[in-house]
Amino acid sequence: MYAFLIRLLLMLSVLKLISSRAEFTNFKCHSLDTDFSEFEYCTLKAVNRSYKYLSTKIILHKVPITKVKVKFGLYKKFSGYRPFLYNISVDACQFLKNQKSNPVASYFYELFRSASNMNHTCPYDHDLILDKLSTDVLNHRFTNILSFPDGDYMFEMHWIAYDITRAIVKMYWTLS
Fold first, then answer.
1. Does domain 21-175 have CATH number 2.70.220.10?
2. By three-state DSSP, how is residue 113 classified?
3. 3-class SS at 169?
4. How far apart are CA 93 and CA 165, in angstroms?
5. pTM for this structure?
6. Quick one: CA torsion of 114, 71, 153, 51, rounded to 10 degrees?
7. DSSP of 152-168
8. In what order do the strands lie in the sheet with 37-46?
9. Most Cβ neighbours (<10 Å): which of 2, 72, 85, 176?
């Protein structure tokens, strides 16, 4: 009986060491209306083989911004990127007032919250910054909180202000 328990504990400890690993592969930012906003930088930086991070700065030219929606979707690569599980639109101003109102939006917002200054409700009267978003957050979100299958993923966001799409941001990563 004790030998069985010891084997079981050893197997569980080995399984705990085996986990998925996320790695950023690309990061694209595109401003559709440069009179309204533009990207100062949009970078994927590799510090070494195992540590990469994303950073971007969006300069807002027409502030304050009081009406923002975000349309986002998660895509998985199957002979091209195809929709995978989530594709929703959120009124960002209302969501930030009550983050529990939309659990899916909250799940994805938690990816960026700690690395960005987009953590308050409207109006936005300053530039928006995402600074050094690392794969540690992805690893935690996509393996520990919700377990996703291995593969290549893209998270696409359409930023809509005053009912006009102003920018598109695409984040690519591999889960292995």
1. yes
2. helix
3. strand
4. 16
5. 0.82
6. -20
7. EEEEEEEEEETTEEEEE
8. 37-46, 52-60, 128-134
9. 72
